[in-house]
Amino acid sequence: MSAPALTKNQALVFDVLEKADGPLSAYTILDKLRDHGFRAPLQVYRALEKLLEYGVVHRLESINSFVACAHPGENCHSHGIVAFAICESCGQVMEFHDHEVDHRLMDWTRGKKFKAEKTTIEIRGLCEACAA
Amino acid sequence: MSAPALTKNQALVFDVLEKADGPLSAYTILDKLRDHGFRAPLQVYRALEKLLEYGVVHRLESINSFVACAHPGENCHSHGIVAFAICESCGQVMEFHDHEVDHRLMDWTRGKKFKAEKTTIEIRGLCEACAA
DNA sequence: ATCGCACACGTTATAGCATAACGCAATTGA
DNA sequence: TCAATTGCGTTATGCTATAACGTGTGCGAT
Ligand SMILES: [Zn+2]
Ligand SMILES: [Zn+2]
Ligand SMILES: [Zn+2]
Ligand SMILES: [Zn+2]
Question: Is this prediction's pTM over 0.85?
């Protein structure tokens, strides 16, 4: 599941996300890529689908946006559950892992015999700078 | 923040959610209430906004749906973070709380001086029955 | 070689989710 | 009574995501 060479469209989308200073919606990405020939949402969504699969991009469910993984190189998927803190003022996102949280949630799912496939942890609020 | 008497529209929406055996989208709720005079999405969204505020309904960010709180009576907001396990096959939702998870996440936010406002924890996968 | 398949891509159309903006009516409290 | 608040109804619009169709390209099997 590690990333093979990206196709042209995948590379363009990834590049936009990496250079952005916060999460972007698919349509914002589309707008930024019109000069590179992008014309339709599907071009973005199809690239995102692969980038998510490769683990180099994350989807923020609570704000319908996408962000480049903060841990380039390491395969983020292998770190267990990924959590995000999202500043609702400046849009900055912090990505982190907490194995103890993973364990607690896994304990719960084991107890319920629930087969977890994908777990979302997103904390929305204000970053230190914006809360001041 | 505990629930005052619900208005007519709020009661209708809440009733639909309580009787449902799983989460519903706003537009599904709208369809179920057409016979009761609902004509537009805003009627649903405005009711949901209040029900969420009162803590008697939860929003599932990862599936753009809404579900009645599984803990009627108790003020769910006071239990700390609410977590959900969502079966992607049958749609069933289990709601639970884990104070240890809360503590770990609060420790992290304190360390980063991040002011958390709303935290989402959603586990998607297969329930025991559907995983068999 | 050429057939079949998998995959990326482009385009158009459509489906699904959410809110803006206007105006009206009922309630409340000064 | 007057102003402020809240709920409500309607129309229009915007944002998010996918369906369905067809094209081209690379690559292994026959
Ligand atoms: Zn990551
Ligand atoms: Zn901030
Ligand atoms: Zn609850
Ligand atoms: Zn199930």
Answer: yes
